[in-house]
Amino acid sequence: MSTTPAPLALAPLELAGAFGWDGFRLEYTEYGKGDEVVVLTHGVLMTRRLHRELARRLAREGFRVITLDLLGHGGSDRPTESWRYSMTDSARQVVALLDHLDIDKAVVGGTSLGANVSLEVAVLAPERVSGLLIEMPVLDNAVFAGLLAFPPLLFAGRFAPATVRAVARLAALVPHGNQWVDVVTDTMRQEPAAMAAVLHGLFFGRIAPPRRLRQEIEMPALIIGHARDPIHPFGDADTLAADLPEAQFVKASSPVELRFRPERITELIITFLRERFDAAETSVAEGA
User: Fold this and answer.
1) Per the count of CB atoms within 10 A, which of 15, 67, 73, 270 is most buried?
2) Widest pairwise Cα distance in the chain
3) Has this prediction a pTM greater than 0.90?
4) Which positions ≥6 away from 101 have C-beta within 8 Å?
5) What residue spans define the domains of the chain?
6) Which long-range contacts link 120-124 to residues 24+ away (Cβ below 8 Å)?
């Protein structure tokens, strides 16, 4: 009887890169390869590491996944002028990433800030978006909780920078290696002036496309809403699902289900992606 072990599944190709946008350097990571492209962006003050495990899983399923650090986050440049930060400019950064990599069209998605940026991409350049993956969108119901959560950070960045630097130094001492420890320490490693500028620019401008524009977003979307999440109320995800003409709605049990018990939602994401790319191939074949 043969005792030859089964071959191990190869880890998906991972490549880090960078490109220029409006005079600044933005960093990204590619997972896997191929023509079926997914772009993911992170939450506010977080980094592209947030989506690393999901990206690896999707790459193993045959998709090419690109995670981007938006301006002011992670390894990307962090200017200190608040006017440089907006949802619409963040959407332009995603389109610039597609241009840099010569990608005509992709499924675009993200979490929290990244969810709203994805909506802005769909409004800005609908011809570049074949579908939307939206987790934790921030609409009207989140305003009150946001006013409680983020002004203290804005105040600290402006008026207590030594505190922000001290937290960043402590975070830098934590050993790397655990995915979610790394996500938390990445978020804690802020530069005071840049952090304040990000929060001021993003949350005192347009938070999301208004309902009139959301109702004109025609590409299919998978929207993930969370129970028991005051910063990203379930009502915002539910409202968005009603606004978008081609939306599928998924209720997560908590804000951490996709992170710590990802199997159910990840399978739904994979099914959605396969449907989107199969539909795109069919459309191309019919037009040929």
Assistant:
1) 73
2) 72
3) yes
4) 30, 66
5) 14-140+206-287
6) 120/87, 120/88, 120/90, 120/91, 120/208, 120/209, 121/91, 121/94, 121/95, 122/209, 122/217, 122/219, 123/91, 123/209, 123/213, 123/216, 123/217, 124/88, 124/91, 124/92, 124/95
| Digit-coded pLDDT (tens) for 38-92 | 999 999 999 999 999 999 999 999 999 999 999 999 999 999 999 999 999 999 9
Residue 3 has pLDDT above 50, yes or no: no
Cβ atoms < 10 Å from Cβ of 109: 29
Q: What is the mean pLDDT of residues 89-112?
A: 98
- β-strand partners of 38: 65, 107
CA distance 216 to 206: 18
CA distance 56 to 99: 23
pLDDT tens-digit series, residues 123-179:
999 999 999 999 999 887 766 677 677 888 988 999 999 999 999 999 999 998 888
Helix (H, G, I), strand (E, B) or coil at 103: coil
d(CA 269, CA 133): 8
* Distance, CA of 283 to CA of 288 (rounded, Å): 9
The residues facing 131 across adjacent strands are 107
Residue 44 DSSP class: T
* Cβ neighbours of 281 (radius 10 Å): 12
User: Strand 14-21 to strand 37-41: parallel, antiparallel, or no bridges (unpaired)?
Assistant: unpaired
Q: Are strands 64-68 and 24-31 parallel, antiparallel or unpaired?
A: antiparallel
Structurally, what CATH architecture does the domain formed by 14-140+206-287 represent? 3-Layer(aba) Sandwich (3.40)
Structure tokens at 134: 């939206």
Q: Are 15 and 27 in contact (CB under 8 A)?
A: no
Q: Which residue has the tokens 């910063």?
A: 231
